[in-house]
Specification:
Blueprint (H helix, E strand, L loop, with lengths): L1 H26 L1 H19 L4 E7 L2 E11 L2 E4 L6 E6 L7 H11 L8 H29 L1 H7 L3 H30 L1 H7 L1 H10 L1
Antiparallel strand pairs: 1-2, 2-3, 2-4
Helix pairs in contact: 1-3, 2-4, 3-4, 3-6, 4-5, 4-6, 7-8
């Protein structure tokens, strides 16, 4: 009963922290997305310089500017100046792991080591870069489509890999990573909260 009571109180604290952490995450989107976009642009422009012209935040969405455009009704590479196609995507759809982890960390009772919250958020921002790259790659492969695939000389294996990366990076990672990271950083509290789970967790490491 004691373990069940501790678990119930922890869940209640997490639920209480979720609204303020999500509100803060939403209103500070431009700040926490800025380094993610900067690193994503650096990787994309180094990896696919012939395809990616620019990546920037526009409101709460990310604008991918490509080296493709429409000429006479057809998509072509290297269009006339000013005719580059741009594509918007919503990075908040895969960055919600930040407030989820923050709520879990803040709901964990003392003693808490101060570095765990910023360290966890930093790791999640790197995961967010992976999710953003997977999302943008999906746009290039399946929305720009054949002209990008032909430019890069990508076969079916590469296209299937891009599809799998999108499913994994935009759907699975944001849901699973904050919980796994919280478990890894708060194993001592997990031992109090659910001793059986904690012992199996230690055995798996």
């Amino acid at each position: 009963m004691a373990a069940e009571a501790r678990l119930g109180r922890f869940v209640a604290r997490v639920l209480a922290w979720l609204p303020p952490t999500f509100a803060l995450w939403y209103v500070t989107a431009a700040w926490h997305l800025a380094p993610v976009i900067w690193l994503s642009e650096l990787i994309l422009r180094s990896w696919l310089p012939d395809a990616v012209a620019d990546l920037r935040l526009q409101g709460s969405e990310v604008l991918l500017v490509t080296h493709f455009g429409e000429v006479a009704g057809q998509l072509v590479a290297n269009p006339p100046p000013g005719e580059n196609l741009g594509f918007l995507s919503n990075p908040l759809s895969f960055s919600y792991s930040l407030p989820v982890f923050a709520a879990l960390a803040l709901a964990t009772p003392p003693p808490r080591q101060w570095w765990r919250l910023p360290a966890g958020l930093g790791i999640l921002m790197l995961v967010e870069v992976a999710s953003m790259l997977a999302t943008l790659l999906k746009i290039l492969v399946f929305t720009v489509g054949p002209v990008f695939v032909a430019q890069q000389q990508w076969g079916a294996l590469a296209r299937n890999g891009a599809a799998m990366a999108y499913q994994f990076g935009s759907l699975l990672l944001p849901m699973v990573t904050p919980v796994v990271l919280w478990l890894a950083l708060h194993r001592s509290y997990l031992a109090e909260l659910a001793p059986g789970i904690a012992s199996r967790w230690r055995g798996a490491l």
